[in-house]
Amino acid sequence: MTPWEIQGSELINCNCSYGCPCQFNAPPTKGFCEAMGAMSISSGYYGDVRLDGVNIAVVFQWPGPIHEGKGKCQPIVDERASPDQREAVLKIMTGQDTEPFATVFSVFAATLEQAFDPIFTKIDFDVDVDARRGWIHVEGVFDVVGEPIRNPVTGDEHRVRIDLPHGFEYELAEIGSGTSRSHGNITLDLKGTYAQFARLHMNNKGLIRHRAAA
């Protein structure tokens, strides 16, 4: 395998209620899964190709729980990426050069029956993980706005996190509320549903852990 490693932050919005059941090996809130989001790579490489500053995005749709498959995926790559960078991140995003099921990309790739041709466009990404705030604009494809969950009585910001010591995407995610809409091959419209803000660090073998696993 070509050695690779990426580190950065992500914002993902899916159609589940806050505290997405999928994170707990339970069926999704509505019986099916829809999601969109992006990752900004702060530092990384694929072989000799540097990936610092490259943004990637994706739209997913499954007719049932993710593990039952039959999913669809629209991969999107930053238009600023060079041809070598585009090829590199698409290999990572499709689970290539990765130990089986070691990363979220590898796991999800195994559940897809249709992956649309990648789109190369402008990806604006501004996310503060700890504040649980951010927005993503993928030109011509989708928009996401993430914000803190609000206490329904007082209106105060509510903070909650999901800790996955043995996860394949993140170790710790801040949970918020997301609203998003996508266009094109996969059309979704999500309002006030589960959003996760997380820092990601992974390579061919999976997550690079910064805390001791329980």
- Mean pLDDT, nearest integer? 96
**Helix percent band:** under 10%
Give a short account of the largest sheet: 14 strands, mixed
Number of strands: 16
Shape: globular
The H/E string reads EEEEEHHEEEEEEEEEEE
Poorly predicted ranges (pLDDT <50, ≥5 residues)? none
Structural Rg: 16 Å
Number of domains: 1
Q: Termini, distance in Å?
A: 29 Å
Strand-residue proportion: over 45%
Task: Decide which structural class fits the backbone.
Answer: mainly beta
Tally of helical runs: 2
Pfam family, one: DUF1326
Protein name: DUF1326 domain-containing protein
InterPro entries: DUF1326, UCP033303
Structure report:
This protein is mainly beta and 214 residues long. A hairpin with a 4-residue loop joins strand 8 and strand 9. Strands 1, 2, 3, 4, 5, 6, 7, 8, 9, 10, 13, 14, 15 and 16 form a 14-stranded mixed sheet that branches. Strands 11-12 form a two-stranded antiparallel sheet. It contains 2 helices and 16 strands. The protein has helices at residues 83-93, 104-109, and strands at 4-14, 33-46, 49-50, 55-62, 71-78, 112-115, 119-121, 123-128, 133-138, 142-147, 149-150, 157-158, 160-163, 172-182, 189-203, 206-207. This is DUF1326 domain-containing protein. InterPro entries: DUF1326, UCP033303.
